[in-house]
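Notebook p. 47: complex prediction with iron/sulfur cluster.
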Amino acid sequence: MKKKVFPEVFPIESVIATLKQEVAEYKVPIVDLIAAQTKDPLKVLLATILSARTKDEVTAAAAKRLFAQADSLEALEQLSQKELERIIYPVGFFRNKAKYLASLPAVLQQKFDGKIPDTVEELIELPGVGRKTANLVVAVAFNKPAICVDTHVHRIMNLWGYVATKNPLQTEMALREKLPEKHWIQINFLLVAFGQGTCKPRLPHCDRCVLAQDCPQLGVTPRKVPNTDRNTAKNTAKAASSSGKKFISWNVNGLRAALKKGFLDVLHQADADIFAVQEIKAMPDQLPDEVKNIPGYRAYWYPAQKKGYAGVALFTRKEPKEVLYGLGKEEFDREGRVLTLEFDDFYFITAYFPNAQHGLKRLQYKQDFNREILHYMDQLAKQKSVVLCGDLNVAHKEIDLANPKANRKNPGFCPQERAWMDEVINAGYLDTFRLFNQEPEQYTWWSYRFQARAKNIGWRIDYFVVDAASKERVCAAAIHDDVLGSDHCPVSIDFA
Ligand code: SF4
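Predicted complex, structure tokens below:
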């Protein structure tokens, strides 16, 4: 194959011109949107503080709630830290951010006569405002030259080889030297939109990128282009764009509790084709209409007979051909553990596997369930692709939990449970996450005790598993450990 030759000097002018056209159709990043809609430096500052480590949809909803109660510094001053926490939840680090917002009016009054300053040096004197936030406020709220280097700008500038830097501050300084000033204000908007839509942090979509001819892709692992024929290895880019589906699975540990912690924000922001939930701990008639009738989705419920216990549900954009409730075995089905949707070319199963429980008291029940569901998957896989997702309540290998030695005899990691995972893999099924990621410390569940989540002392017990013949249909797999609201976090795959 002919080796690709890249221009010696990265063609920044033509690349930026191309990007402007490309992202015109993309979603506008939230802070730019708020700036365009409000033209209010205070609102831009507040939204920028909220947006750090938070998805745009969550920021947008939190900013809307905040502006409804605080559209001026005086109004903001009236809100206590606790009230602010409640208003802005579930943005990332909401407690710290509430603390910053609570102290902001006094500091602004004291240092800047109650006005939002318009220089980076002054802005970084405010609580919760670092260089990134300050640059964004200067550029977006005041339309003055400033380069906001967030993770997308830092990453993309480096993978282009336009800079060679180790951290965002170095990138900002290098760009101040190198990037023509006329591009400073807009570069953040362009690269955030492009980084969210195409040049994603994990598995960027190089196969359909308008910059593929100019980009040296330094240090990049592009996504695999999927295959629609599950029995051949021949991939096509067309297949990726025309039939790619996003599936999410999340053990919500009680849907009524999760609803109070922003479940619907997470679901809308995920924009999945199928969103599976486990451990709903509720009958549908105990749930509000807002979750039973989500616009754009059909919902299917399979609760346990016992109130407040187990249960699974599925939200799907496309109507399935058929819905299969349970495994046909009363001892498992009364606990609402398995729900299946049948589509033209695949079965989608969500399952909440039993916990073997303290002293392995329920190990036998779990092993019986395991045997039954594997048999069920085998039967379905004879007909078409099988996607199984959910809380399998087992960490397969030592890499899948923080303390393997201490947990060898404990539920979730005992030899019998791990042996069943071996059996699943030996039967030809694939743990999709490990197709893409071999790193340690990738967890989906953390105990509520001992600050386990903050310290990342966790377990990977939530999975997407597919039959071997469907391997090429899996384009990406991820763990979304930034999503709060349960002691588990969501996992996902892109499926062609
Ligand atoms: S070719 Fe790939 S790495 Fe380069 S800009 Fe496009 S998506 Fe990003």
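Notes: Residues 226-242 have pLDDT under 50 and may be disordered. Residues 159, 198-199, 204-206, 209, 211-212, 215, 217, 220, 222 surround iron/sulfur cluster (CB under 6 Å).
Next step: compare against the earlier run before touching the bench.
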